[in-house]
Amino acid sequence: IPLSQTSRYDVSYAVRKERTVRLPEGAKISAPAYSARKDPPTVARRSPAPDLVRSIYLLWGHHPSPGRSGLTVSAIVRAGIEIADAAGLDAVSMRKVADHLGAGTMSLYAYVPSKDDLTALMADAVYAELYDNDVEAAARAGGWRAGMRFVARRNWDLYARHPWLLDLRPSRPLLGPNVSRKYETELRPLEGIGLSDIEMDAALALVLSHVDSAARADRTASRTQDDSGMSDAQWWGIVAPVLEQVMVDADLVLSGRVGSAVGAEFNAAQDPEHAFAFGLDTILDGIQARIDRR
Asked: For labelling, which of 22, 130, 169, 173 has a CA lying 20 to 30 Å from the CA of 42?
């Protein structure tokens, strides 16, 4: 099937046979069709290229036409997001999405061929919330440091609304339209400040990795409170007096002092929000120092 016509492609499973799949550039690759039957052990593994190309077209809006049931890719994606927001990413399955929509499970595959495709579409959809389709949003924050703070805070807030994003660990980037606009928006404050293109990408990755790490710590702290039935303040109120009695080793003087100071400041052993702000300041100071050395 011509992948340039993926808005009409048929994703029903057919008996495996060799076919040629035409790529947008006109190049050809030999790839087998999908199969619902078990392949004979002598059949070589098919190339992943057709699935990858199909997935990219799907992300960029080349969707099958709505069926008589009214199912659409967008409706399926919205249902997946609602389930993930309520119960986490592990709760999302094609069956549960179908139940949510009142449709048959197999009917979903005519629109979204796999759960991997579904989670990619879900992630790309929620990334649209970051900047309201405005690629100048971060650049208008005022200076590159303010722009990076704006980027960091928007991503932090997105994780708070959709914590299941933290469970997505793709080894390669999702390449949908909203992810691409996110990247464009977040790079713009770094343009023209003295960094090379490679350094701009690395600086942005460092900021986003820090946000990811801090958001994970925040989610872990929230889950611990829910599981234990105690707030951090309640936990610290029990633990701190006991530590004062047992931590009498002379080798633990420094850790005891610093730990007590942290506990007194935050009424807890740690504060993810403070770690987020302090780490971001330190990263931005480091980027500025790198620029100033030139």
From this structure: 22
Q: How far apart are CA 84 and CA 172, in angstroms?
A: 22
Asked if residue 202 has pLDDT above 90, the reply is: yes
Burial 1-31 (b: 16+ CB within 10 A, else e): bebeebeebebeeeebeeeebeeeeeeeeeb
Those residues with Cβ within 8 angstroms of residue 261's Cβ, 6 or more apart along the chain or in another chain:
none
Distance separating alpha carbons of residues 101 and 112, to the nearest angstrom: 14
Give the DSSP H/E element, type plus range, for residue 141: none
The answer, yes or no, to whether residue 215 has pLDDT greater than 70, is: yes
Which two tokens mark 117? 């495709």
- How far apart (Å, rounded) are the C-alpha atoms in residues 146 and 137? 11
Pairing of strands 28-32, 18-22: antiparallel
Q: Is the pLDDT of residue 17 over 90?
A: no
Q: What pLDDT is stored for residue 13 in this prediction?
A: 32
Q: Are 90 and 142 in contact (CB under 8 A)?
A: no
CA atoms within 13 A of residue 117's CA, in its CB half-sphere: 24
Separation between Cα atoms, residue 223 and residue 217, nearest integer Å:
10
Render 164-224 in DSSP notation, one character per residue: GGGG---SS----HHHHHHHHHHHGGGTTSS--HHHHHHHHHHHHHHHHHHHHHHHHHHHH
Mean pLDDT along residues 29-36: 42
From 194, 189, 270, select the one nearest 225 (Cα to Cα).
270
* pTM for the whole structure: 0.77
